[in-house]
Amino acid sequence: MEVLSHLLEGFAVAGTPTNLLIALIGCFLGTVIGMLPGLGPINGVAILMPIAYAMKLPPESALILLAAVYAGCEFGGRISSILINVPGDAGAVMTTLDGYPMAKKGLAGPALSISAVASFVGSIVAVVGIVAFAPLLANWALAFGPAEYFALMVLALSCLGGLVGDSMLKALTACLLGLALTCVGIDANSGVYRYTFDLLHLSDGIPFIVVVIGLFAVSELMLMLQGHHEGVEAVQLKGRNLFNLEEFMLARWTILRSAVAGFFVGILPGAGASIASAMTYSMERRMAGKDHCFGKGDVRGVAAPEAANNASAFGSLIPMLTLGVPGSGTTAVMIGALTLYNITPGPTLFQDQPVIVWGLIASLAISSVMLVIMNIPLVKVFVKFLDLPSRLLVPGVAAVSLVGVYAVHGTTFDLVLGTLLGGLGYILRVMNFPMAPFILGFVLGDMMEQNLRRALSISNGEVGILFQSPIAIGLWIVAAGMLIGPRLAKALEARRAAQGLVRPA
What we know:
With 505 residues, the chain is mainly α. The protein has helices at 2-14, 17-35, 40-54, 59-84, 95-104, 108-141, 146-162, 168-181, 208-226, 245-267, 272-287, 299-315, 317-323, 329-340, 349-352, 354-375, 379-383, 390-409, 412-430, 436-458, 470-502, and strands at residues 185-186, 193-194.
């Protein structure tokens, strides 16, 4: 009953006229940003975060805006995947496999509508899961000390390294670069200047907003100028606009299964929507047996990844709110938004800031309803944004991004530093280094260092304190499993494949 009482209070916060308008604006902007190839939720949240702060929005309103943009991006990514075969973000990659073939068959309308419903179901399942599990996890996390928190953050980075497949080395390299940037500035314990190069502006470290805007927005603009996301003509919307009963009945259990699976994948720190969509697509394809046309325009191939990536996106908020550990690159940016308001995410957040937490959770449900109502009838309006040329899009995004950076501290140094970091991000992205590990490393770096130092101070320098409590031991075991498990599974699969090739001979 206490949870329901808090949830009602959250709806009272999220349901004010101002916050409803903010959520509506965020949903619209998020859908547009999500459907523009390459931008995605991280860029959307990163661009709007400094603007929300500069506009002096209260913290609950700022989070509602960012959460609505996040949800809108997950909804919008499917539009470009289905119509131009270019995913709006990483979570929509699997949607292209069946969404675009459906569009080529003249079924773009049914593909867009069933994907919108699947996204809505995934979002609602995740909201229910957050209400059910987040308070329990927050209470359990109250038993965490510095050693347990350090082990938890190692687990988050291990999840990231274990789930990126062949890019493990690049992911870990990007993560280490992010960790290295957190060392810039004054050491909080000794007062020593570290890696500031005698620049006064770096004495407080590199601002989070500068890092995010530089790595994501500025580097993305450089890729746009290079022409990575132009020259693709959208499939025209013809025929019926809605799915029929037969298509819905075929996909109904796929949607529900994928939503539940995507939610639990999202809880895992560092996994993200792309892992959830790929996993559920493969799962549904196997479950379909021989009676399917996956890869050729199967409605289940559209519904599964869309339900999973939305559920995973919302599920990634659980570790952010309860443990202070980002569940995805986008929630890492949202943690930065909380720090701008001097709010520390973690298990005490539910007790110290219930208005913010439950207002955010309630706004997720409201945003989901807004998005499904907005995306089905207005899809032809959103499609028009796909025709925007880079010569118009790049200056607009650049102006919004740089104004947001300048508004925080009012110094040109931040603009120069953001541009330099954008150049670094561009080089890394051209070399196919993932950016999410970079930002996760940057977010976790300071917390890892502080918790490690506290743990060692408590034990007079004895490293054994990191492995004493049952919680810490369990986290270390899971972390090792996340690093070794995917590699072992891949080796076993390769061995079975090799044996299968040998037997017929």
